[in-house]
Amino acid sequence: MADLRMLEREVEAFFRPLFPGEDKILVFGDGKSDQPPLMLIGEAPGEQETIKRRPFVGKAGKNLDEFLQLMGMQREEIFVSNVVKIRPTAVGPTGRIRNRPPSKEEIALFRPYLMKEIDLVQPRALVTLGNVPLQALMGKVTVGDMHGKWHTACNGLPLFALYHPAAIIYRRELKEVYEQDVCSLRDSLTIQTQK
Ligand code: URA
Asked: What is the pLDDT of residues 79-123, one digit of tens each?
């Protein structure tokens, strides 16, 4: 835990000067930080996450609750984080600030810290939500090809790929696929713990 706090200070010290004059809030991972069975990795925090300074709250938190319910797990049992620790924003046509997907540059800047975070937390397995964390950990692959199965991440850890639950909002046909994938994940973990 102390090591994670040190990593967070290191990330703050690196990124703070990159956004001079902007009050960019960094949102770090949370949950069971000592060898959890799973580390769930999303893209980047949104507005609610920066307000609460916690990943996957608000609408994304509801998605996480659904995932946990299907898995039969509590949030406190796993570690939850994102590749990019700042909220990527753009100004919409009406002048409103909105979320946007993280850029290649943002992903590249934050990736080394994600790898350190994983090293410190030592999860037994990684679960990626969507292409951003999947590609950060496995290179040029796509979630369309990799979802619903176990793979080996670049650091040697078992990795299970899921669609990002937000993708389901735009592609309703993925809802069933996503739920089946989560059930496969749950069943494969149950089999492993029974061995
Ligand atoms: N909120 C997060 O913390 N991460 C995501 O990927 C989406 C919403």
From this structure: 999 999 999 999 989 999 999 999 999 999 999 999 999 999 999
Judge if the beta carbon of residue 49 lies within 6 A of ligand 1. yes
Domains, the chain: 2-193 (3.40.470.10)
Which residues, given as ranges, of the chain have pLDDT below 70? 193-195
Q: Which of 39, 41, 48, 56 to mutate to test the pocket of ligand 1 (most atoms within 8 A of CB)?
A: 56
Q: Please, are residues 128 and 82 in contact by the beta-carbon 8 Å criterion?
A: no
| Cβ neighbours, 10 Å, residue 108 | 11
Distance in Å, CA 191 to ligand 1 centroid: 29
Query: Which phi and psi angles does 99 have, rounded to 5°?
Result: -75, 150
Q: pTM for the complete prediction?
A: 0.95
